[in-house]
UniProtKB/TrEMBL annotation:
<dbReference type="GO" id="GO:0005787">
    <property type="term" value="C:signal peptidase complex"/>
</dbReference>
<dbReference type="Pfam" id="PF06703">
    <property type="entry name" value="SPC25"/>
</dbReference>
<dbReference type="GO" id="GO:0008233">
    <property type="term" value="F:peptidase activity"/>
</dbReference>
<comment type="similarity">
    <text>Belongs to the SPCS2 family.</text>
</comment>
<dbReference type="GO" id="GO:0006465">
    <property type="term" value="P:signal peptide processing"/>
</dbReference>
<comment type="function">
    <text>Component of the signal peptidase complex (SPC) which catalyzes the cleavage of N-terminal signal sequences from nascent proteins as they are translocated into the lumen of the endoplasmic reticulum. Enhances the enzymatic activity of SPC and facilitates the interactions between different components of the translocation site.</text>
</comment>
<dbReference type="GO" id="GO:0045047">
    <property type="term" value="P:protein targeting to ER"/>
</dbReference>
<dbReference type="InterPro" id="IPR009582">
    <property type="entry name" value="Spc2/SPCS2"/>
</dbReference>
<keyword id="KW-0472">Membrane</keyword>
<keyword id="KW-0812">Transmembrane</keyword>
<keyword id="KW-0256">Endoplasmic reticulum</keyword>
<protein>
    <recommendedName>
        <fullName>Signal peptidase complex subunit 2</fullName>
    </recommendedName>
</protein>
<keyword id="KW-1133">Transmembrane helix</keyword>
């Protein structure tokens, strides 16, 4: 048990690096490989800054584009400690739009 937990800890720390979501964006024509979106977050112990990074991996070219932001955790929670998704979602959309705009430039 302890050996497997050690292997799992090493894998999540050094391979996954905080990735909590991997989503595939299907090619509309069905010809090209799927694009991949990865979201990773980090919140250090005793720190109030939340770090979120979004990575887009083009299925056809394999090119990676990453955008990040850092913001105080209290920006997204109310007095009761409930996540205010309507405050958090625009930040995610903004990252996605920045990556998409960068794709249209190239």
């Amino acid at each position: 048990y302890f050996v497997l937990m050690g292997v799992l800890t090493v894998y999540t720390t050094y391979v996954e690096k905080g990735i909590f979501l991997v989503a595939l964006q299907k090619d509309e024509a069905g010809i090209d490989p799927d694009n991949k979106w990865e979201l990773a977050s980090m919140l250090k112990k005793y720190d109030d800054m939340y770090h979120l990074s979004m990575t887009f991996i083009d299925g056809k070219t394999g090119i990676k584009r990453t955008k990040e932001f850092s913001k105080c955790v209290s920006s997204y929670f109310d007095e009761k400690g409930t996540l205010c998704f309507d405050l958090f979602e625009p930040e995610i959309r903004l990252l996605q739009n920045k990556i998409s705009a960068e794709d249209k430039k190239n």
